[in-house]
Each structure stands twice: as structure tokens, then as C-alpha cells.
Amino acid sequence: MADNKSKNLNETEVEDAQVIFDGGNNLLCLINDIMDLSKVEAGKLSIHIEEVNISTLCRNLRQVFNPIAKSRELEFDIKVDEKLPATVSSDGHRIEQILRNLLSNALKFTETGSVTLFIGYSAADNVFSHSCLDPNTALSFSVVDTGIGIPQNKIQAIFEAFQQQDGSTSRKYGGTGLGLTIARELTRLLGGEIQLESTPNQGSTFTLFLPNAFDVNGVEAKSDGGSIVSDIKFSAEEQDTSPAEPIEQAIPAMPPREPYLEFIPDDRNNLHEGKLSLLIIDDDPTFAKILRDHAREAGYQCLVAGDGRMGIYLAQEYQPSGIILDIMLPDIDGHKVLEQLKFSLKTRHIPVEIISAHSEDKNTALVKGAIGLQTKPVSQEALLTVLDEIKEFSSTELRRLLVIEDDTGNQTSIIRLLDGSDIDIKCVDKGADGVDEILSGQYDCIILDLGLPDISGFEVLNRVEVGELERVPPVIIYTGKEITDEEQNELNKFSSTIVIKGVGSGERLLDDISLFLHDIEKRFGSEDRKTIQMLHDEDAMFQGRKVLIVDDDMRNTYALSKKLIEVGFEVDMAHNGKEAVDQLSVEKNFELVLMDTMMPEMDGYEAIKQIREMEHYKLVPIISLTAKTMPEDRAKSLQAGASEYLTKPIDFEKLLSILRIWLFKH
């Protein structure tokens, strides 16, 4: 309602809607904080010890706090000591939770200046009250702000539950007063401590100190003598096999933030900014490992997906420098994966090389935007060539375009079309000169007219074909001549695409150039970018698609249906699993089902199983939606027949991203 897209609310009503929305969010934060605190107090909070990647931790924090700092016009930075190891042994989820609390407070109480997170080792002269912290080896996470500061007489109080520096009803800064209490208790669970230095009106420094390796014996008990540790889990390589006293079963640890399961071990949790990365999409684990190992030797960080959908997710999430794609995939045909990658503005700039066990039409692959095609088995030399080619695409700053066109008016119009795009354009008016330029090997894309004064465009293509050029760049036929079927068949042997001059051809030509030159949209002016975005409207695929929302909570169905209708869906609703099964058994025209799992009469798991038994709905996408966040719930949903699994509250943009993949028709 607060978005007011239909413009039927006045300014006061929009403000009221925003107040309701903010109030609901604040209440949710309060409930989550109280539940975390109560779990700690009851000794039911799990600690999951693993190797925590510092780079991944920093990336997650930047993603959350960069937009907040920008909106408040504050400087935000994270600085990491180069001497620090890549990973440390602790609970990454809890460390991130503590740092989020500290950073959130720092940004909230800082009106001008900066907030900086320093990660390194503690100073050797630090004094700790915690026995398991060694000043020479302890890790230090310091959140430094230039905010309002804290008086000395308030420092102890702010760490107590529901306490704030300013506790009056007229206080300027909101909050529950639980954040620092939870941070303190989680720190104690991890065997560390928090220290605070602050000067009113100058700023504060909250420092989280942790042991560089977790020691369960060093966890401090609560002041009343009761243990606050009920369940500590180690990853397989760190597990202690010595006998242990039985303990009461605790609430399982929260699943990791990363929603995409590994097909084979890759580098997704250890990615470094500025270093080349490669996404491998191949369902053969043996061949995928070979590709991964060769790519690592060539200097790439690797991501690996065993099916098409996971490949598209990883491409959107991590934006790799290049992609190696198999055609024969278990879920989506590789050609369709390529189409989706090249249709989406998020991924179309990424160079894709196809490696397939089946002999493919190379021209078809090039037309769809691939930079090349290799047939399995691939020699080591060919594979290294592919990796070098991707590296070249990633590192080339200047793109070169050759225009072979004898009409000076058309030459001028093409140059104007790309004006301000930072592309080096050369024009020649004769076919023979064009052949020489192409064979020089310095161009990334060719625009060719068929009607030339000396030799035809067909002859240009023939001469280039028999030349010794190792890689022929993509060729766009841009012509006002009507092409016969025979000429079309001839052109299909050579050219990447054909643009017929006429109404709309400028926009189409611009789109084709951006496809074949890769990563040049950012070089275009704002108007050209808008033109390409109009041709790649990803929400257009939602228009008129019929979706069934199944949820017993009318607030959920109402809110979600409104958002889906806004992007073009036709929405129907069912209030439980039985009602959904009955409705789907009668109506055969639904293209998507959004299914809650916890409902009366018939839960979502049983409903999904019964829907999958219907012939018409065996393959229709079913997205499982649940408020539960246990790792086993995802597996339970997929075993029942769900296509995907999302937790509530629903991230609407993430939902749309999933729907684009499942409903893609291009």
C-alpha cells in the first residue's frame, strides 16, 4: 500500500501504511530477539563450529550495510589485517549475528562521519577477563564509529536486556534494547568477550574478542552457575571422537545462509574480489572436477553446478567472469539455459563457451550468444585455449567493431547509434578491404552489408571462412535487401544473426551488438540502456500466467497476491491443501503453484504429493513456502515433489528470480 502504485492513496494514507509496515517489522525484530535471548537463557541455543571464511563474512556484511550507510550518507568500510588466515574455527552464523548487532547500532547512532569494521589480531597488551583469550593470538573485530558516544555511567546498563542509553519515552533513537544483550550472551557462548571504549559526542569502539580456535572447555558459565551451552556441533573434519557425556537434545542449528548446495566442492565460500571466476555447468561430476582443476591451475576461482537451474542461480548470484556450459543437462536443455543467460540483463554480458558430448551446430550456438563450442572429449590444449579466451573477454577494456558498408549514410547512422559507447568503430566501403580487416584478427564483431561495390557479402564470408583466422568474430548481416530462402540457407552457414534494415532495426542492431561484444551495456548512454532493457523485459513473461496460492493465513495470500498481480500474474487462492487438490483436479490451466507447508485439514507436503499424481500437473512448478527454517524441511519439501523451497517472510525479488527460471519461454 505504501508503494501506492495505483496512486489512489493520499499523502497521509501512504504515511499511515508505512507506519503499519514499520510497526510490523519492529514487532518481528522484537520477537526474534526475545526468542534468541530465551534460547540462550534456557541453554537451548546450538553452536555449530566450522571453518569460518573471513572473506565471505565481509561480503555478507557489506551486502547488508553498504545500502544503509549510503542512505544515511555515511562512509562504511571493512578492513582486514593481511596477516589474518583465510579461515578461523568458530560459529560463522553467530559471529555474523554479533557483528550485525554492533554495526546496526553504530550506523543508527552515527549521524555524520563513518563506521569502520577492523578485523585482525588483538594488541599484545590487551587485558582480558576471559581465561581462554590469549592476547597474543586472540582475534579482534572492532566496530569504530563517529557517533553520539556513550557516557561512562551508561556503559554497563546498555548491555542489560531492554536497556538503552536514553530510556525516555521521547528518545530520538528507537530499538528494543536487546541487541547488545544478545551480542554479549552469544560472545560468551563462543568463549570471547566484548570491550567498549567511548567518548560522548565523539564516537565509540565496540570490540569483539574471540579465541582463534574454539575450545568448549573455555566457554564461560553464566553468573548463577548454570551452563549456557547445551549443544555444540563440529564439522566432520573437526569432530572429537572421544566419548562424551549424553546431553539433552537441543534445537538444531540454523541452516547456513548459502541456499545453493554444492554439486562437487568448489570455491563459492572463498571467493576474492578482483580475481577471475568460472562457472562450470555440467552434470558429469568426473568431467566437472577435471574442468575445475584445470581452471584453478589457470588462475580461476571455480563454481560448479550439476544442472541448468542451479547454473542460472549461481550465475545471477555470483556474476562469474565466464561460463562453461554442457548441453545435455538433467533438467533444462543447455540451449535453453544459454537462452535464459543471454536474455537476462543480469547475466547476458558473461561469455559462455559450450562443451558438449554431442556434435552441435556451432553457428546456432554463436547466434544464441556463445563465444564458441567444443565437442567432448576435449584436449587439454583446447581447454586451455577456452580458458584463455574467457580471460581475454574479461580483461579487454576496448571493444572493436568493423562496419563493412558502402553507403555513407548507413555508416553514419551506425556510428550515431553507438555514439558515446566507448567502442572503437572502423568503417570500410569495399568487401575486399573488409576481408583484409577481418583476417587481421583485431575485431570483436562485424556488421556486414550484402550489397557491396566490388564483391558481395556472401563472397566476403566465403573468403573469411577459408582464411587462416583461428577464431572468426560474430557477423551481423545488416541489409536492406530482401533475402531469398536460398540466400538465407547460405547465410546460416556463416553469420551469427541477420538484421533487416527498417522500422525498429536500430534497436535490434544495438541489442545484437551488445550480445556479441559482451559486457558493453555499461559503456552505453542511458537512452541506449533503456532501449536494451525494453527488449529484455523479464517481467513480460509473467503477463497472463495463472498461479494458485495455497495458504491458510489470509494476510499472506492477500499480500502476496497483490504483488503478483502487479507484475502481471492472474492469481487464484486456496485456503488449505485439500481445497487446492480439489481445485486443481477440476481446473487444468494453472502454470504455477505456491504452496504453504503448515495448514489445517491437509498440509502442504501431502497436497504436493497428491498434485504430482495428477497427469496434468506432473511437471508444473510447485514452490514450497514455509516459516520453518530447519535444514530437514527443505529435503522434506523436495521429496514430496516441490520444485523449489523458500522460507517466510518471502523475499519477493528472490521469488520472482525463481519464477523467471521456471516459467521462461523465449
Please provide a written account of the structure.
The protein is an alpha/beta fold. It has five domains: 1-42; 46-234, Histidine kinase-like ATPase, C-terminal domain (Heat Shock Protein 90, 2-Layer Sandwich), CATH 3.30.565.10; 268-395, 3-Layer(aba) Sandwich (Rossmann fold); 400-534, Response regulator (Rossmann fold, 3-Layer(aba) Sandwich), CATH 3.40.50; 540-662, Rossmann fold. 37% of the residues lie in helices and 19% in strands. The chain contains 20 helices and 23 strands. The strands form five sheets. Strands 2-4-5-7-6 form a five-stranded mixed beta sheet, with helices on one face. A five-stranded parallel beta sheet has the order 10-9-11-12-13, with helices on both faces. Helix 18 (604-612) links the parallel strand 21 (592-596) and strand 22. The longest helix has 32 residues, at 11-42. The radius of gyration is 29 Å and the shape is globular. The two termini are 33 Å apart. The model is unreliable at 161-177 and 221-259 (pLDDT under 50).
